[in-house]
Specification:
This protein has 96 residues and is an alpha+beta fold. Helices cover 33% and strands 27% of the residues. The relative contact order is 0.27.
């Protein structure tokens, strides 16, 4: 499991110009099963994606498809973690 933390490095008007394309990128990776949860930071300085993948290299390859990466709009911090506990309705995310 991976937490992908995006930090904007360009002004919000630049971010906004690519938000719709970024949402299509997110939707594609929800459909593939890689992305589980995403949203923007508050205050709006970036965002967070909760993802599952076989390894960090797979996550890095996925991120390179994000228009925010292509346009150098955000920096990405990828944190790999092993879930140890979850709310009962999320227990399927725990590794056996």
């Amino acid at each position: 499991m991976f937490a992908i933390i995006l930090s904007y490095k360009k002004p919000l008007d630049t971010v906004d110009a690519f938000v719709e394309e970024h949402k299509r990128f997110l939707a594609a990776h929800y459909a593939s099963g890689h992305f589980l949860l995403s949203g923007r930071k508050q205050p709006r300085t970036g965002g967070l994606i909760l993802a599952q993948a076989s390894n960090k290299h797979e996550v890095e390859a996925i991120i390179r498809l994000d228009p925010f990466w292509r346009e150098e709009i955000a920096d990405y911090d990828i944190i790999e973690f092993v879930p140890g506990m979850a709310a009962s309705h999320l227990s399927s995310l725990l590794e056996n």
